[in-house]
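Regression report. Comparing outputs from two consecutive submissions.

Submission 1:
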Amino acid sequence: MLPSNSRSGVLAVMVMASCLLAGCASNRREAYLQDKAAAHVYRQPIAEVWSQAKALLSEEGYSMMEAQGRYEMQTEWLMLGAPSSLGTTYARYLVRGGQKAPGQTTVVFHRQMRVQSQGAHNTSTGGSAGSAGTDSNTLDRDHAMEWKLLQRVDAEAAKALEAEAARNVP
């Protein structure tokens, strides 16, 4: 390790600090943009925004089932990454669209995550002590997916929000 009073040691610490700060600023900007996307009201008809939401999920690898006569859909479970001895992670989406007034559309993405692990192996019988069990199961709003949809459907609004974030988020 370099002595702290050496020039190269001080320079290394400064470079690391600036990288960490840049990363923090980047994360703050991303969180700001995602929060704004969550509150965004599209100025397009709901059918137009809805078709883009379905296309986005399809591109992400999800297959979906749509509710009859409503702007609501749920995807099938999708395995994220490879199975692991620590557990296998799956995700699915519940998406709801609404129209506040003609030309005022909202779309909300909820992502359900599930981590599933195999039951413990029973050494006395040679079988497993139980079937696959779910270790955790969460349902959260997915602002990142809403931001992706905003960029896709209303690129001008997304660019305006990016400029606003650059001005307002240190």
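Submission 2:
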Amino acid sequence: MIGKSQTIEAAGERLFVRRWGRGIPILCLHAIGHDSRDFEGLAQAVGGEFEVVALDWPGQGQSPRGTGPVTAQHYAMVATDAIVALGLGRPVVLGNSIGGTAAILMGAAGAPVRGLVLCDPGGLARIDGPARRIIGWLAAMFRAGARGAGWYRWAFDLYYRQVLPRAPARRRQIVAAAYDIAPVLAEAWAGFASPEADLRALAPKVSAPVLLAWSKGDKIIAWSRCKAAALTFPRHELRFYRGGHSAFLEDLEAFAADLRAAVRAWR
């Protein structure tokens, strides 16, 4: 399916956006360090029924470097403004990782959404000692990459073999940009241990329907650590998929079928 692209202004940021298909819009928010190419396969799978709209977060993909902080709170404002700038009305919002965190914030704030599809979102696990240590270690790795450390690309590749074990082609694209994206990753991960990163109390405040789409093999945001908070969304369905962190990349057929069913139910 051939898509189209455009550039918009949202919350003081200039964003590159890809669009495919026609129908109920699905606004797709990618993980940190990724970009809108994550959703090309999904667009091929469901673009005959829905419009898949995917943006590049500031400083990622083809969007220029941002003016705001690399936080889910800022990204939620960006995505909410993007809904208006793109004329999407009440879209379904699909968010992965930090994109899922932004989607939770949008839902809790009453943004005009038809429903949320949360793919291994951040913000639902308790930030305890072990979590702080892992976050600190990864933030240090990304800071080393931003400084140009020679070993960083090898470490980044090893890390992404855990993140996307079932999406080798997409993983290679992301790893190829390891040094370019390191400053954004370093800033984002430095904030993941902050009090603002804990959104567990917001889940019960999300009135929109929620599809929780979790990858069984996620070693970064494990379901076991997020389960207690995730099950407090008032209107949720839960589905598990093969893969490490992004079901729409690693278990596309199963994910697309569940997405179709959910969006049809939310008409």
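Expected: both submissions complete independently.
Actual: both completed, but the second showed a warning that disappeared on reload.
Relevant detail on submission 2: DSSP finds ten helices and eight strands in the chain.
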